[in-house]
Design goal:
With about 160 residues, the protein is an alpha+beta fold. The strands form three sheets. Strands 3-4-5 form a three-stranded antiparallel beta sheet. Helix 5 packs across helix 6. About 15% of the residues are buried.
Length: about 160
């Protein structure tokens, strides 16, 4: 049987300290099979390095999803791994909301304008655009929920469910 670490090395390319996987990925995560069983490459490396993997998740300490360098493999409990991912996701959402808030500070429309636009009946998009000093396409995107979508009825309902 061929050494797994040699096989991993053959299917990766060095970039700095990381070995970037060029083989098959499952949901964007380096994956392979060994003896007919599917594995994430990080877990397979951890097993080969005799790390105690039972009940733990193998991950790359460098943070690069495509890295398969055995020196970067770490183990973490499933709960700690989930908490880490939730924290990362929350930080991403917070960052996106800050970006949106900064963009809206420069916007010609206010939340009151958006509410008025969405509740306007019998007024053309062109007339609404002239009234608020924006392009007709902006009005269309507001009405379709493509902009200010977190303040659309569906967006508001989703925020209430959190």
């Amino acid at each position: 049987m061929r050494n797994i670490l040699d096989a991993v090395r053959e299917k990766s390319v060095e970039e700095g300290d990381c070995w970037l996987w060029t083989g098959y990925c499952n949901d964007g995560i380096p994956s392979t099979s060994n003896s007919g069983k599917a594995y994430r490459v990080a877990r397979l490396i951890a097993i080969r390095l005799n790390m105690p993997v039972d009940g733990k998740v193998a991950y790359m300490k460098c943070g690069n999803k495509m890295c398969v360098n055995p020196a970067h493999v770490g183990l973490m409990s499933r709960n700690a791994y989930s908490a880490k991912n939730i924290k990362k996701m929350t930080e991403t959402i917070s960052w996106k909301m800050k970006q949106k808030k900064m963009a809206r500070a420069r916007s010609k429309l206010t939340m009151d304008d958006v509410i008025a636009i969405r509740s306007a009946e019998g007024i053309t998009q062109r007339a609404l655009a002239a009234k608020y000093g924006v392009d007709q396409k902006v009005i269309l995107r507001v009405l379709k929920g493509q902009s200010w979508n977190d303040h659309s009825p569906m967006g508001m309902m989703a925020m209430q469910l959190r």
